[in-house]
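Notebook B, p. 112. Complex prediction, attempt 2.
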Amino acid sequence: QKEVEQDPGPLSVPEGAIVSLNCTYSNSAFQYFMWYRQYSRKGPELLMYTYSSGNKEDGRFTAQVDKSSKYISLFIRDSQPSDSATYLCAMDDYKLSFGAGTTVTVRA
Amino acid sequence: DAGVTQSPTHLIKTRGQQVTLRCSPKSGHDTVSWYQQALGQGPQFIFQYYEEEERQRGNFPDRFSGHQFPNYSSELNVNALLLGDSALYLCASSLVRENIQYFGAGTRLSVL
């Protein structure tokens, strides 16, 4: 079993829709939970991070962490074609453990 | 404020050769981590350096080695290259007390 599980998709939504992404994990020691966005053949760009459980909002992005269920989510409201990318969840335990990434396409 | 910079951008090598990749961390950061990302997969942790010492290491063979310099920049060396070493190599920097890692654009290594 992988430490971090993420549905690879792909996910295709119309412009303006809400994109919902999620990951599950098995390591209870994880404390920081991050979401990265990666465009094709580029390095991952940090979108948001959350320490421990709870919600965090930043513009159109909302990150949720439920440590009791070992489940994290990222929501993108009012999605735009420029949001088309691969989204990676990552969790830290001195190193980052990544999900496989979900490829999202927002159709104009 | 410069972010994490990596060089070279792209590299082509043949099996058995050796390669050195370079990374300069984000200004103010003291910790550098290296990752390997195969196509269609998430990055896999290779190792992390702090105070010029390797702090932690992932499940990679000894052919993968690294170094951190007094100015916090870092190198990743891979010896005896295999076809399977073809990947995007990512460097990330952070503060040791807060493991929020910022990535560079990566070096794409092709082994022929």
